[in-house]
């Protein structure tokens, strides 16, 4: 799947250990799909995930993706709204 990955981002802690990761994939069109936003449980609730998603969205814009979508569990709705996503008729 990563061969279709346009770009990815990760966050490392002070010990250089990867604590967060996510990526945007697509087929080279104007639409991207954000996937696998993961933050280590010990580091959740610190804004790391929000910063990661916002950086991926900025990179999406630089890459020329005018639309980025994401599918998520309902319990993560507020997280993605905080990140700037807007709920659509089929999701955010």
TrEMBL record:
InterPro entries: Acyl_CoA_acyltransferase, GNAT_dom, NSI-like. Residues 1-92 form the N-acetyltransferase domain. PANTHER family: ACYL-COA N-ACYLTRANSFERASE, GCN5-RELATED N-ACETYLTRANSFERASE 2, CHLOROPLASTIC. GO terms for molecular function: N-acetyltransferase activity. One of its GO terms (cellular component) is cytoplasm. The keyword Transferase applies. Pfam families: Acetyltransf_7. This is Acetyltransferase (GNAT) family protein. It comes from Pseudogracilibacillus auburnensis. The lineage of its organism: Bacteria, Bacillati, Bacillota, Bacilli, Bacillales. Keywords: Acyltransferase, Transferase.
